[in-house]
Amino acid sequence: MTDDEDFKTEQQNKPFEKNTNLSISDEIRKLKSLKDDGLITNDEFLSQKEKLLNN
After folding, report:
1. 7: in domain
2. What are the distances in angstroms from CA 47 to CA 15, 26, 51?
3. Is 4 part of any domain?
4. In angstroms, rounded to a whole number, what is the distance separating the alpha carbons of residues 26 and 50?
C-alpha cells in the first residue's frame, strides 16, 4: 500500500470531524444565520458559540 493509500484509508476510518477549513468566525456566522432563520434556538446558538470559542 502506498503512503497516499494509507492516508486515504486513515481518513476514511476517522469519525466525522468539524470542517477545519472554516474559521471560528465563519462557523459563528453560520450559526447566527441558522438562528436568524429560526432553525436553531438562541440557547443552541449560544451553546455552540461557546464550544467554538473554548476550543
Report:
1. no
2. 22, 16, 6
3. no
4. 14
Give the Cβ contact number of residue 2 at 10 Å: 7
Q: Residue 14 falls within a domain, yes or no?
A: no
DSSP 39: S
Tens of pLDDT, residues 1-53: 566 555 554 545 444 455 556 799 999 999 999 999 999 999 999 999 999 99
Residue 50 lies in a domain: yes
Report how far apart, in Å, the C-alpha atoms of 32 and of each of 10, 28, 54, 55 are: 33, 6, 17, 18
- pLDDT value at position 4? 55
